């Protein structure tokens, strides 16, 4: 749904990440862009959620999200690299137990904050590709398909979830589900870290 670039501010020299959404994607994913902007603006100060600064639109109608600069990589890329490094040693875990615990704890904290807001949200897309790992911490990002939870703590089935890490109930017709679906996805992510 976009491209990510590293940019440097001309005057200050400060580094940022910019996510660019092309006009075609922006037109087709207007709701996702609005979701990301709304949720990001409410989650500015959590240490395990990538900081969002602003949204900009170019004269060509490209949409840009400006984020804090992070050194590291997505968990998906780290898992892939560890898998390659491990080679045929399949009995050797991809990550050490303390690494898995740290990443899981950081993302659990991010989700707990997201679920505990005055207007709570379900992320709905927790997976290795939406977790960024730095030297010191893990951060959750990509809130494009997040949704607010109703006053009963539930959400009704929608079709834009990612299949590989989603809880089974999100695919059942006329089913309501709550924040626990994010923790199910986090559990699958932890399992993926373990087996590589």
Number of helices: 5
Q: What overall geometry do the principal axes of the alpha carbons give?
A: globular
Distance N to C terminus: 26 Å
- Derived structural class: alpha+beta
Strand order of the largest sheet: 1-2-4-3
Please tell me how large the radius of gyration is. 17 Å
Overall mean pLDDT score?
81
* Helical percentage: 25-40%
Q: Biggest β-sheet: count, sense, barrel?
A: 4 strands, antiparallel
List the uncertain runs.
none
How many beta-strand runs? 11
Spell out the helices and strands N to C: EEHHEEEHHEEEEEEH
Strand content: 15-25%
Write the layout of secondary structure elements.
Blueprint: E1 3-8, E2 15-21, H1 23-28, H2 30-42, E3 52-57, E4 63-68, E5 73-74, H3 75-86, H4 97-115, E6 121-122, E7 131-133, E8 138-140, E9 147-148, E10 155-156, E11 176-177, H5 180-195
Antiparallel strand pairs: 1-2, 2-4, 3-4, 5-7, 6-9, 7-8, 10-11
Helix pairs in contact: 4-5
Task: Provide an overview of this structure.
This protein has 196 residues and is of the alpha+beta class. Helices cover 34% and strands 21% of the residues. It has five helices and eleven strands. It has helices at 23-28, 30-42, 75-86, 97-115, 180-195; strands at 3-8, 15-21, 52-57, 63-68, 73-74, 121-122, 131-133, 138-140, 147-148, 155-156, 176-177. The strands form four sheets. It has a four-stranded antiparallel beta sheet. A hairpin with a 4-residue loop joins strand 7 (131-133) and strand 8 (138-140). The longest helix is centred in the middle third of the chain and has 19 residues, at 97-115.
